[in-house]
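Quick check before the chapter quiz. The format below is the same one you will see on the exam, so make sure you can read both the input and the output lines.
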Amino acid sequence: FQQFLDDNIRGIDEISAHHIETYFSQRLDGTIQPRSYSRKKGSVSGANKDLKVIKAFLNYAVKKGYIHDNPANTVRKIKTVKKIFRDLSFEEIGNLLDVAREKFPQLYPVIAGAYYMGLREKELTYLEWRDVGFDRNVVHVRTKPENRVKDCEERMIPLNSKLKAILEQIERRGRFVFLTPSGTTWKNNLYREFQKVISVAGLQDVGIQTLRETFGSHLLRKGVSIYLVSKYLGHSSVDVTTRHYAHIPIEMTHDAVNVL
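Here is the expected output.
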């Protein structure tokens, strides 16, 4: 809010919708750089967050009687366009796993884990050995100090037999399953190293999130119930999963319609 105020505004009652719209536009085009490193220059989400803060301050001013109306109420935030995610084909994921196994053995387990469990990146990074039930063939995704599970949706995922064989070969060097060669947890360096594998595999625009999306997509393409897929992914509702995977080809429904 202090960044929004300029030398021309001496009192809160001088703030107009024009001031707010000008600031909002400049945040969108990057003319005004955010002071917080967590907000990207010229990002829609950053500008929307700033507008939310401005509205909140001015609502408080209205409540206290400093101003009669909130001029920010006429300024509308911009809706961000949600991109259709990319999921890999069965051939692409097979090639990626082969490349990782043969040329990047230190990354192979974590890449396989990302695909066969569909975990979010932090869920993958902070997966503990006690989360893996080799006897019951399940993986428990739960909240822990390093990472709170999104929407508090703790869940159980079946342990894929191929992944089980991979995990059984990993040396247990500490609390977490997937560790760097030096014995530390994968953090920002995971993205950097993963991109090397992607490059050798001849792929582009692929991240750990892509493997999570591919996990869900491949299960659906193999005929697994969308309700189970939603549960495994930890979505807040099956409606989220349905919207998320609306790109699944309609040809997949032909057999279902033919039963009528």
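If your answer matched, good. The longest strand covers residues 138-141.
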